[in-house]
Amino acid sequence: MWTMIAVLASRVAMWIAAPNACEDAYIYFRFAENLIHGGGVSMNPGQPVYGITSLPWLFLMVPGALIRHPVAWSRVLTLAIELYAAYSVDSQLKGWRARLTFAVLFACVPLAAALSASGLESSAFVATSLLLWTNRRWAAPWVATLRPEGIVIAAAWAWKDRSRWSWVAIPPLVVAGAGFLLTGDFLPWSMTAKRLVYGTAAPPAGFYWLTSIVPVYLGGAPSDFRYLLPLACLLLVSLFVTRSRVAWGAIAVIVLYALSGSSFFWWYAAIPLVAMLIQIPSLAGARGFRHLWIAAIAAVVLLAPSAAKTYVNRYRSENTWFPILTEQLQGGAAPGDTVLLEPIGRIGYETRLPVIDQIGLTDKAVVRERLAGDGWFTRLMAKRRPQWVIIRAEDVTNPAGFVGATKPFRSPAERDSIFAAYQATFGLRNDRAVLYYVMHRVR
User: Fold this and answer.
1) Count of CB atoms within 10 A of residue 273's CB?
2) If you average pLDDT over residues 38-62, what whole number do you get?
């Protein structure tokens, strides 16, 4: 009961501090809205694309679209799953030390609260992984399908037990089939686009992922992992004392991330969080290690304020910048005007304008242009001729562009010739420089 109360309090506190969802969650919200209005699984109605990571989560967001409160719905649904997971794990752990350690970790690690408020599937994925650890077999299909890497965790749980394999193998096949019927793709196109556009790095470039499971800071690790370093120490010790197949599945995913050089997005930190929430409380309840609960709680108490500030600031920066850009479009764009932009989430959801996704997560033609070589932005603008462009200042001033292996323009002259047809109507600034330009086509 106390664990559930602590989780509830921490989640509500994060909701108050960050009233809006994560930027990428608004992609789900727009897809869900298009789905209920007959537009299919799409960013732009009538243009089906598997542009979201989790098809099950998309369908779970449909009630939020129906009641027109997607942020509230995503949070209430996530919280309900988390509270059930908290109750189930608390009932399974032995000894007050283990239960207290779990309560503090699940409630007070800021990453857990930030994921819960995000509107993404990550927190539900963490909670269902915890339920799988308690041997709720029905959780296996959710773990295997809520996120692509979940099949590794579910497979680890089912290892050497044939009776479990049907729970793990069949649901991903069903989801893949549904994806193909709805969009023409078996796997999320957004995942393929990220691999093609962001790229993957050969070892050891991706080894910073290991910072989340070993107590050594590896260069390039994001702040999310630096905050988890003390808990990584306890996680490493726990692996020599108590072993969970679910936790080992999560660790296997992290190793795969490291070896493949996978790009980092902060919600991917849900994977090490799964291992920590399972292993560290179990260690605190093991004979000979029962005083380590003090170290776990101390680590959380000492690091939580600065980590919480990081996540709240991320939410607040998005809640400051993107509404301003949204207002600029709403004030000048006509219904049906196309807009080329990145990021596409909140601006696309609130303006309802047809979107050309500059990264290509929801637009395969954009990825093809990017892969065709330097000057991809020039070719894209010439072919699609959007009425509006929201572009990062870095894409204008930096020859290499914001992200991707190919350059947006082959020369400054080419860049200037493209933008000669556009008028900059607004520049979004922070206290140091311009961050985004809003441009309108005038000829």
Assistant:
1) 26
2) 97
